[in-house]
Each structure stands twice: as C-alpha cells, then as structure tokens.
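Onboarding guide, step 5: your first structure request.
Type a short instruction followed by the sequence, for example:

Predict the 3D structure of this protein.
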Amino acid sequence: MAMPTVSVRPKDAGAKGDEEAAPHASRAEVVFDLRDVSVSYFNVVAVAGVTLDVHQNEITALIGPSGCGKSTLLRSFNRMNDLVAGARVSGHISYHGHDLYAPSVDPVEVRRRIGMVFQRPNPFPKSIYDNVAFGPRINGRRKGLDDIVEEALVNAVLWDEVKGKLKQSAFTLSGGQQQRLCIARCLAVQPDVILMDEPCSALDPIATSRIEDLMADLKRDYTIVIVTHNMQQAARVSDMTAFLTAEVDEHDHRVGRLVEYDSTDKIFTNPSDARTEGYITGRFG
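The system replies with structure tokens like these:
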C-alpha cells in the first residue's frame, strides 16, 4: 500500500479570520490516531497503552519526567524505532487513516513525510547549501535546488543570516543557527509532519525564543509533535499536551504511561488527574 497523498495548506491560509485560522481538536483533521500503543525493547516494555489523536496544523507537546517514554513514543510516529535493535511497537498507529506499520508501507517514505529534528543540532559535515539540498538530492532532484534551498532557509527564518555564505561549513554557525539549519533541512523534502525531540535543550534563551517563534509560524503549514522537559515551553507553544509518567512494574522496570491528554490550557490550569497537577506544580518529577 502506498503512503496516502496529503496536502499542505498554503501560507496565506493563516490570514483567514480567527475562527478558521485556529483549528480546534473537534474540527481539525486527525493526522495520527494511536490506539493502545506500546513500545518495548527486548521484550521489556518502555511505554504502554497510549491512546490519543494528533490533529492537523496543531502543535502537540509530550511532557513528563525523565524515563517516562516521551522520546520512545515520539520515534514511533515515524518508525524510527525500526532502526533500534530489539525495539517492537504494538497496538495501532494510523497516519491519515492508513496503518503506519502495515507491511506494504515503506518506512523510508514514512520518514520523508514525517521529518525529525533532534535534541542537539546535527548538521552534516558539509556546506550550509549542501545540508539543505541533501534530502532533495537523495530523492532524485537535480533541478531547481537553488530555489528549494532558499525557500527552506526562508521558512526556517535563517535565509537573511546565511544567504551570503551558503558555501561555508555548517559548523561555522551558532548552535541556534545550526538547529534552524536542521529544521530547514527537514523542510526541504516537503514533509507533512515535523517531530521535534527536545529541540531547544542545548540552546540559550534567545535561540530558544527564535525556535519557539518559528514553531508557531510553521504550524500554519505543518503538524508538529514536540517532546520537551520545559513545561513553560509546552505552555507557550502547544495546542494540545500529553502528560506521561513512569510507573515501576512488578519486575522493577520503569514503564511510561499516558496519564492525561487535553488542550494545553486545560492541562496547565485545570488538569483532571492529581498526578498531572503534581507534576505541573513541581511537587514531583
């Protein structure tokens, strides 16, 4: 089965009235549908029984204490766990209504449509230009690369800072610039979804602010799922928040479990579960 055809909303769609420009969970199309999803490594369960929906053109934050399985769960969204020895994903994950783990689905195509930005900037040992052009070239693009690179850098709010030094090494950029370069590299292959695993944890407050502003801009055209330890960041940028916690099973293994999933406003002001309130208020975690 081929991956589904998906469309990206044009940029001027964000100029519509407030009602249309800010989709709500009850109206927005479901991009990911997770039902009873568990991930284990060598038969040891790392995260168990997660059920939630991720909606189009929203930022969904995964928060919780260390060891609760946030990053493990995030990697299941684009089959990155396939690359981890001993990893196994059970339950059901659909992407635009299609089984993401069906045998006929190409995981390489999955990762093109569902891009990943990692915790630490990881530019390739290449020029700024070649970093952004890498994905399109791998996908067979030979023409129009200049336009693709420029558009990706513009959308990552980096073009004005690098347009005169595209042939310089990516390592000459600051940490925040390198992270935005990695986002541009992701955008260059025209994904539908961007996954971000602690994208600001290695950055200073100014660079963090720029990445957060960038995320708010990108959600007009992309669906974003972010893992963050920074609760203030989740409160600032996300529309929906999932709180996970870690429980110790009968074998003394930590197992991540979803406690609560709701609008970010509700999670941070009126959570339904006492464990969520305890984490949000700093009583544990």
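Each response can be followed by summary notes, for example: The chain has one domain: 28-280.
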